[in-house]
User: Fold these one by one.
Assistant:
Number 1:
Amino acid sequence: MIQRTILLLAWGFLLAAVGPLSGCAQEQERASPSAKPTTTDSSLTKDVAYVKTPQRVVERMLEMADVSETDVVYDLGSGDGRFVITAAQQYGARGVGIEIDPELIRTARAKARLAGVSDRVTFRQGNLFDADLHNASVVTLYLQADLNLRLRPKLLLQLDPGDRVVSHDFGMGAWSPDRTETLAGSTIYLWTISDRIPDSLAH
């Protein structure tokens, strides 16, 4: 009788100990569907993490692209705006930065005001693949190889002959650059839009 009582008491303690833990797990499972979903909308997510291009590389890229006051420089994935701000400051060019991160857009606009070039540069929040590039004469990039390849048809079809594309660290696959240069551990690629585009590159 005493042994049975002891066994019953032990079983009761075991149920009391296990019961609350099982209940917590069930509560967590019920709560998970109501958690905020992660968006997959490409217009709201970044394709590549923001990494700053060193300022001397920015300046050399613009120099290689032969930027002048007659140019309109588009920077796709413009970050803090340093490409278009530098183009406006040093060359008198006009510039447009396309950036998906609203905080970086605010930073770029503030830097443009401090640099005194707000009247020459514009920053637009949006997906770089949706950008209309027809007004650009120079396009600057610091993306990734696969993103460059996805952009290649747009660049070739929307830019005019003589327009320039300059990329930090990443090439364009079969589209051979007109010029390549290494600076401070970075590779700079320069292309000039031709009046004859091979079909193999335009898709």
Number 2:
Amino acid sequence: MNVVVIGATGTIGTAVTAALRERGHHVVPVSRTSEIQLDIAHPDRLFSTVPNLDAVVCCAASGALVPIDAGTDEEFLTGLETKLLGQVRLLRRAVEHLPDGGSITLTAGTFAAPTPGSAFGALTNQGLEAFVRVAAAELPRGLRANVISPGWVGDDATPADVVAAAYVRAVEDPTLNGQTLGRPT
């Protein structure tokens, strides 16, 4: 498959790109700093820049931990605009450009236990999970959408290659649609 990985230079994106390539997929890496640049808040030009895709994977979404009583409205709205609405826009654009049976995999995030500063992130992530669950049922032409919801990723947490396996499964498994994968327990 031809797969674009948005956020390909980050911890998760690097692991997802490698895992998909190991499985024989042609991967186009995209990020704010790669040869093909994209800000997830504005995904409109992606499909004219990278045509003929079979799958779209977004690992670019992140948000800062901001205490509910200390953050500015702008800090909260940035997470909403990029992580939630940017990925919603990406899914909507992908519907117009992917072939029948194409796949869209987005990124939410969940912690096993409440973490100080994560209230707005929880709102954003749960909103994205709910959106994907419902939007998947409305997708035309056999298109599929899933969301990965990893917790902390890195040396002292879930290894990036373990999280990458969930992305590969979402891309490759034609029975997965409207699912949240990788949620920590």
